[in-house]
Every structure is written in structure tokens, then in C-alpha cells.
Amino acid sequence: MYFDFFTFGVGAQYFLVAFVVAGVLALAFKVIYQWVTPYKETDLIKQGNVAAAVALGGALIGYVLALASALAHTTSLPELIAWGVLAGVIQIVAFTIVRLIFLKDVKARIEAGEMATAVYLASINIAVGLINAASMTS
């Protein structure tokens, strides 16, 4: 058995491009998600608000789970981007529904550092991300 440097080089190039595209998608999701939330995660986290960090962390994990599935199941960059955008939209819609129907006072709760709310939000985001990821396998 031998190591084929040419094949590795082609694969490594695709890996690097896909990795960068996935990173840009994840960063774009984070920025848009923070724009949609009624509280300022960055400021709250800088102030030591763990609830804000947990809620945002859950959103990022949920999105990246779906993005990882897209990376594993797509065969082209346009397809990866399309699935990544769709997964982000679904994550944000899910958060918005929860915020408007179940947690109308989410801003005050997160700003007060309420961990129960943060864990609930993180759990919903991770669950939605898992469903997103599993839906991409068919």
C-alpha cells in the first residue's frame, strides 16, 4: 500500500475550501442569530452572564450539528451552502417561535442570568439542529 500525494492534495484542497465555507456559514449564522435575539449576547457574556453564553452556545452547537451533516452528505459547495442556509433559517425560525409563544419574557430572563431559560433555549436549539442534521441524510 502506498500514499498517493496527488489524491491527498486534491482532497486536502477540497477539505480546506469546505472548512472555510463552513466557517463562514457558522460565523454568518452567529451574527444573524445575535441580531435576531432581543438581548445583546456579546455584552452580557463580557459582563459574565453565563445564561447568555449557554443560550448562544446551544444555538451554535445546534447549527453546527446540521452544518456537519451538510458537509458529510453534500457533493458540491453550492449544495453545502444551500443546506447551510436552510439549516440556519430553520434554527432562527425555531428560536423566534419559542421566543414569541413560550418565552415572551426571554430578554429579561437571559439578562437576569436565569440558567433555566438558557438551558431550555440551548436544548431546543440542539434538538432542532439534530433534526436538521438527520433530515439531510435522505
Which of globular, elongated, flat, extended, rod-shaped describes the shape? Answer: elongated
Mean of pLDDT? 94
Q: Give the class from helix and strand content and strand pairing.
A: mainly alpha
Distance between termini?
34 Å
Number of domains: 1
Tell me the number of helical segments per DSSP (H or I, 4 or more residues long): 6
The helix/strand series, from N terminus to C terminus, equals HHHHHH
Rg from Cα: 17 Å
| Strand segment count | 0
Binned strand content: under 5%
Instruction: Bin the helical content.
Output: over 70%
| Quaternary structure | single chain
Largest sheet entry: none
Low-confidence stretches: none
Q: How would you summarize what this structure contains?
A:
This protein has about 140 residues and is mainly α.
Question: Can you walk me through this structure?
Answer:
There is one protein chain. The protein is mostly helical. The chain has one domain (21-135). The protein is built from 6 helices and no strands.
